[in-house]
Structure to design on (147 residues):
């Protein structure tokens, strides 16, 4: 079994997996969205003081994704563009001990998620593949499908 197959099985997206529950999305009028947003992510108008920048060297705009934590991650599967910085914002709407933190095991990131507070995690440009995230106990699972 390949690493990608292992991740897909971990996330429940492998062959024979049940379809994900339909949750709120921007396409159906809810708050959560699986599509990257470019809102408020314009490139800076100038570079550092006096520094010239050759064409095409400006950083890509950061993608913004939002996840609500309430009886799991909603949405549990997100999609992002490869090679662009990414900001994932989590909003925890429950008090379950399991959901008190989020872990990106492959990236070495672990963050506390206080109830009712937005917590943003900035990720560097990622290569194509699945980037899993879990609760601190590994019971709640989600992932970012980087394409």
């Amino acid at each position: 079994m390949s690493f990608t197959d292992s991740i897909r099985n971990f996330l429940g997206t492998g062959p024979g997996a049940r379809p994900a529950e339909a949750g709120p999305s921007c396409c159906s009028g809810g708050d959560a969205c699986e599509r990257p947003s470019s809102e408020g992510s314009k490139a800076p108008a100038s570079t550092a003081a006096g520094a010239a920048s050759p064409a095409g060297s400006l950083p890509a705009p950061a993608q913004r994704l939002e996840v609500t934590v309430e009886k799991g991650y909603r949405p549990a599967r997100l999609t992002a563009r490869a090679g662009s910085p990414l900001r994932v914002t989590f909003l925890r709407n429950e008090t379950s001990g399991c959901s008190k933190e989020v872990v990106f095991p492959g990236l070495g990131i672990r963050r506390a998620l206080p109830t009712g507070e937005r917590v943003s995690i900035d990720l560097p440009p990622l290569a194509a593949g699945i980037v899993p995230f879990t609760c601190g106990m590994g019971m709640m699972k989600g992932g970012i499908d980087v394409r």
